[in-house]
Design brief:
DNA-binding transcription factor activity; 7 helices; Arc Repressor Mutant, subunit A; DNA-binding; 153 residues; 3 strands; globular
Length: 153
């Protein structure tokens, strides 16, 4: 009986997995941000897509996908939905018909005023300096993982 208890003690616990901490934090973000994003009428993925467009308008679908870490088959339906909502428009690049360019509409740019009046960072319950440190640590973690995967390929 003691051997079983000892074996159980040496097994890693779910709470010890960094990947689970990040995964469960992501789920918690979704719940915390939901009421805020509902006011905008956007899902989280739609929101980050629009934020990326505020940073740089007139992007190709492929460059936008790279920024968001989304494949084209995931991003395209999001763009179609945002286009249907009147926030952006897609059109073929006249210089390269293979590329589709995405541009914000007036309504998409105006949405920024409403969105930045909402404090998504406050939903985290962190002080501004803690928030900044946490964000930088998570970006470093993500970049390390991306690098490790690319080195394996």
């Amino acid at each position: 009986m003691k051997t079983t208890a000892k074996a159980e003690d040496t097994n890693p616990k779910l709470a010890d997995f960094l990947c689970f901490a990040v995964y469960s934090a992501n789920l918690a973000f979704g719940k915390a941000y939901k009421p805020i994003l509902e006011e905008l009428g956007l899902t989280y993925t739609q929101y980050i897509t629009v934020v990326a467009m505020w940073e740089e308008d007139n992007q190709t679908v492929s460059s936008l996908g790279e920024k968001l870490f989304l494949e084209s088959n995931t991003l395209t339906p999001i763009l179609k939905k945002l286009e249907g909502m009147g926030y952006l428009e897609r059109q073929r690049d006249p210089e390269d018909e293979r590329q589709v360019r995405v541009n914000l509409t007036k309504a998409g740019r105006k949405l920024r005023e409403k969105a930045f009046g909402m404090d998504l960072a406050q939903a985290c319950g962190l002080e501004p300096d803690e928030f900044s440190k946490m964000q930088k640590s998570i970006v470093a973690l993500r970049n390390n993982l991306v690098k490790a995967v690319s080195e394996q390929e």
